[in-house]
Design brief:
Layout lengths: L11 E6 L3 E6 L9 H10 L6 H21 L31 H7 L3 E2 L2 E2 L10
Helix pairs in contact: 1-2
Length: about 130
Amino acid sequence: MNTGQLHEPLTVDCRVVDFAKRVCYNQAQYMSVVSQDTVKQVALLARLKLEGHQLAHLASQLDSILAYVQQLTSVPTDHIEPTTHVLALQNVLRPDAVKPSLKPEQVAALAPASRPPFVAVPKVIEVRR
């Protein structure tokens, strides 16, 4: 999709989005911005195997999401104070306190497998070759 040049003058709102692409939204009509190539690239980065019809379907869904988010830019928020969370949060953690704990030998005795002074655990990271 070529968004670099428009053939006729339009009032547009341009935003910079992922992959350093400049995306323009026609104020009257939303233009498709997510191509199947973009979905394919994101799927590759996320190590997802997607086929042709899945790429088209996801591109369409992502376009719908971006169109909805674009509608939110028309909401006036100048008078609203920025927030990081909807609820007032405070630190609910207990203070650190030194307490007695098990000795390394006791922990090793409780473990299904150990290599003193360590506890042996199953490998959880796959190595692809």
